[in-house]
Specification:
Order of helices and strands: HHHHHHH
Strand content: under 5%
Helix content: over 70%
Mean pLDDT: 80
Number of strands: 0
Length: 160
């Protein structure tokens, strides 16, 4: 029993004396607001890349590189800042919540646009149905066809 107690104390001392693993604050730490915007862009492009991977690969595009250039940072600065913020769960969670709110707001905006477009399509369909019904009732009605727009071409003289 004394051996077990002695071994337990030694193990607790060794584990209890573990050094602090918190990363030190980088000299070029990305500000929290900028980091949140950067994470938002990374999430969006990651989703787009997941859906259109073959297109990105075919064109040789790397969206992450574009985003890093957009924010004028390099991958090491991003990695160090991300590691630093991720260590503090409360801060990182609030940043991710901000990203989620932005994504939800964008989604709502596009859903509203989609609904408006669908209403417009339905309105056009309904007006076309009404016209066809009138033609069935009275086949002698004249249908006015829309005029075709002429294509504008530039003459050689204008281009010179």
């Amino acid at each position: 029993m004394k051996k077990f107690l002695a071994i337990s104390v030694v193990v607790l001392l060794v584990l209890g004396c573990e050094p602090n693993l918190k990363p030190k604050k980088p000299d070029n730490l990305i500000p929290k607001e900028k980091m949140t915007n950067l994470l938002y862009d990374m999430f969006i492009t990651s989703s787009a890349k997941g859906i259109n991977r073959p297109k990105f690969e075919k064109l040789g595009l790397n969206p992450e590189t574009y985003i890093l250039k957009k924010y004028s940072i390099d991958s090491l600065q991003f990695a160090e800042s991300n590691n630093y913020y991720a260590y503090d769960i409360k801060i990182y969670k609030s940043m991710i919540e901000d990203v989620k709110r932005k994504i939800s707001a964008e989604k709502e905006k596009y859903v509203a646009i989609d609904k408006e477009e669908q209403k417009e399509k339905d309105r056009k369909k309904d007006s076309l149905k009404k016209l066809l019904q009138r033609l069935k009732v009275n086949p002698n009605l004249e249908v006015i066809k829309p005029k075709k727009k002429k294509k504008k071409t530039l003459s050689r003289e204008v281009c010179k």
